[in-house]
Write a structure and sequence with these properties.
Length: 170
């Protein structure tokens, strides 16, 4: 029998079955580097080169990144759980113990990411309790050759039967 949409929790649990990657969106401001964890990231268009992500309307960091104008989307590796957790918290120094280098725009590229894209806002749209951001990519590159950090059913990583990955057909 189908589940009815009776609460946000049931929607979160059901759509939590969709595996997502984890990114950190960063910018540089006159007060220093800022950023937030974001799992609603996707490649949007090749021509023009666009990506999308959706910060919560309650985010206090996104308005500051919007104001900065340039930002970098950092795709996290499986080694970045602590970084993901740190950038998901409010009221802390998110860059404490986090090494980074500037992207061409100056926005932080976090050390050890598997890919990054240096961007500006193309457009923003109402997304209910989130803002849908379409961003134009100006520069991008791959980083470390690690496995991605994924989020599935409310936690990091995937639960798969032993040998499942090694039995995949190429």
């Amino acid at each position: 029998m189908p589940t009815t949409l009776s609460s946000r929790k049931s929607q979160r649990e059901i759509f939590g079955r969709f595996c997502t990657g984890i990114t950190v969106v960063t910018a540089i401001t006159e007060d220093g580097p800022i950023g937030f964890t974001c799992q609603s990231f996707a490649s949007l268009s090749l021509e023009p080169p666009l990506v999308s992500f959706s910060p919560a309307r309650s985010s206090t960091t996104w308005p500051r990144i919007r104001e900065a104008g340039n930002f970098c989307v950092n795709v996290l590796s499986c080694e970045h759980q602590d970084v993901s957790n740190a950038f998901a918290r409010s009221g802390t120094d998110k860059f404490a113990n986090v090494s980074w280098n500037p992207a061409p725009s100056g926005a932080p590229i976090l050390d050890g990411v598997i890919a990054w894209a240096d961007c500006t806002i193309w457009a923003e749209y109402d997304g209910g309790d989130h803002t849908i951001v379409a961003a134009q990519v100006h520069e991008l590159d791959e980083g470390n050759d690690e496995e991605p950090l994924v989020f599935y059913r409310g936690k990091y990583g995937l639960s798969m039967p032993a040998g499942m990955l090694s039995n995949r057909q190429s």
